[in-house]
């Protein structure tokens, strides 16, 4: 596509494109290049190593390295809190029933702390350790528990019941702590995955907006909408119009004005002036009387437009009236361009000339 753009001149734009097959191939190549350049690299959002990196989470405390993200995680509403309370109440009632039958089963009280899944595992470890110490202290110091354990010997008489009681609590606390840590790790990685997924969705929406702007700059708005909409087929878009008027407007002496030297910053000032001229031309298209004109492309100092490209309205007028209307609008636009260029010449002290041609299809 680049070699064709380089050979387009202000005098005879599109003069080198003479074969219809070649033009179609250029169109297909352009669309393929647009799609390949605008679509970002594909990645699997379920790739766990991408979402949970080692430097983003402390391996000991499981806290996020980003303080803002840690605050957002802690401030999440716990919609299942009522179920945690209900579960702890069921365990408490069951523990009370079992406690009436046998004393050592009070170790189940530690599981009440673990049912609150959103509480930090370090805090739950501290609460379970405190509860275990209180239980062991009561069992050892109160006479009712001492007499109970002394009167119920078990299969390991060589080990004192105090040691076995402490080991029992240590094992239970360790198991519950490991489970709590795994639950919090899963919860935090899930939160991090959802946070980064939201960021990726925002990036996709931003890319979609950029793609739309770029396509609307290359194609008419309704054609860009067609290519951006989800489609089951990849057929090329086309419309049939009974009457179209095309106009080329060029500044033939701009090549003489353009020069690359230190005075104009290697041609940047020349390009800046051309950009201002084209922007002023574009402003004319926003007027209601020129609403039927569609800007096709700007190639160098050549300005290409077409009148009559109204999707779905090509059959609303008679053919003769349609042709006259398209030509009249383009002629009026050409007169407006000449007046605008004269004003620019006065302000910039230049002598640019405007050459235009209108072709009726």
What does it look like?
The protein is of the alpha+beta class and 361 residues long. It folds into three domains: 1-32, no CATH class; 51-201, no CATH class; 240-360, Nucleotide cyclase, GGDEF domain (Alpha-Beta Plaits). The protein has 13 helices and four strands. Strands 2-3-1-4 form a four-stranded antiparallel beta sheet, covered by helices on one side. Helix 12 packs antiparallel against helix 13 (319-348).
* Shape summary: rod-shaped
Order of helices and strands: HHHHHHHHHHEHHEEHE
Number of DSSP helices?
13
Largest sheet data: 4 strands, antiparallel
Residue windows where pLDDT falls under 50 for at least 5 positions: 1-31
Alpha-carbon Rg, integer: 39 Å
The first-to-last residue Cα distance is 25 Å
Helix content class: 55-70%
What number of domains? 3
The secondary-structure class comes to alpha+beta
Number of strands: 4
- Record the strand order, biggest sheet: 2-3-1-4
Instruction: Tell me, rounded to a whole number, the average pLDDT.
Output: 74
Work out the strand percent: 5-15%
Subcellular location: Membrane
InterPro entries: A/G_cyclase, Nucleotide_cyclase
Enzyme class: lyase
Membrane topology: Multi-pass membrane protein
Short account of what is shown:
The protein has a four-stranded antiparallel beta sheet, covered by helices on one side. The N terminus is likely disordered. With 361 residues, it is an alpha+beta fold.
